[in-house]
């Protein structure tokens, strides 16, 4: 693993705490929502993006802000209760870094460890390995170059067989799905889970009847890491970096939130015009080369892709459009029933509980999101944003021993969802 020149990450989170706020009324919600817009000025970072009564809100607080933030939570006659959920985020990051160094997988890509987190270089080598190992099924593609000139590298899985309708007739125009991970750089369980599910499709094809059927019915576009620059940065400089790494109009403030940068109701609710904020929407819609190129790739497959999933962490949510409004789209029941199929199958594996619904209803309205564009512009009916494990015990610092369980349950959910989609697109 490449680390900072001082033997550690360049940005230290020593003595930073994670506070869990408990809000019980709308006054408290309004107070904390207003503060969220200026939190970055104090190096206070909201790990939770939802602001709802009786839903915990996780906030990283640096040591220099602890006293003032505690005072703020009791000020103005609106007291907000909290507990210190993590006493020292930096110590957790350091323990995980040491463990990763001790358990580094072999340099031989054939020994890729699916129960470990991997650098962007390792992941791209794994893509090459899949192409070499399954040449009849895997075709590499590069969406384009990132801002820092990295390849946005993925692959297509196809059995080359024709899909079959419910009545047994063959379909010449096979439908496709797109799954991507790592749109937010710090959410390491996301690429790890996408990698696990893609490998499961390949390694169990011809052995597992359900997977064999699903690979024959659909083509799969897999992009393990969307935000390649940001992800690389989390391995070398700042473990909790979220955005891209493009330059902005403000010195020393970098990147935009690639899940707020899409040209659909861009930069209204739930996003920021401040380049220093974690939810900065960009200077304009599709200002980020990464989002623009993924959008072009998907648009070029218009009419083919019927399922899009943007994997995130954390909170255990399976969400459909809309993100920008709590008003449900015309196809909401069709989409949400797919979510229900997925989470029921997922829960059956390890008992992990997920919620379902639209993004705006479950979290809060968010403009310029990926799935609003894929659904509203690219006409991908079954567009979802999935928040993986956990519900906040570890948050973005999910231990490696949860990678395989996350992959197993997510794969079960995907199988159930694809069986559901199959019935509707090949009717």
UniProtKB/TrEMBL annotation:
Domain Peptidase M14: 116-421
Family: Belongs to the peptidase M14 family.
The protein's name: Peptidase M14 domain-containing protein
Record-annotated active site: 387 (proton donor/acceptor)
Organism domain of life: Eukaryota
Record's subcellular location: Secreted
A Gene Ontology BP annotation from the UniProt entry: proteolysis
Function: Extracellular metalloprotease that contributes to pathogenicity.
Names of required cofactors: Zn(2+)
Assigned GO CC terms: extracellular space
Gene Ontology MF: a single term: zinc ion binding
Phylogenetic placement of the source organism: Eukaryota, Metazoa, Spiralia, Gnathifera, Rotifera
Keyword Disulfide bond: yes
PROSITE patterns reported for this sequence: PEPTIDASE_M14 (PS52035)
InterPro entries: M14A-like_propep, M14A_act_pep, Peptidase_M14
Keywords carried by this UniProt record: Carboxypeptidase, Disulfide bond, Hydrolase, Metal-binding, Metalloprotease, Protease, Secreted, Signal, Virulence, Zinc, Zymogen
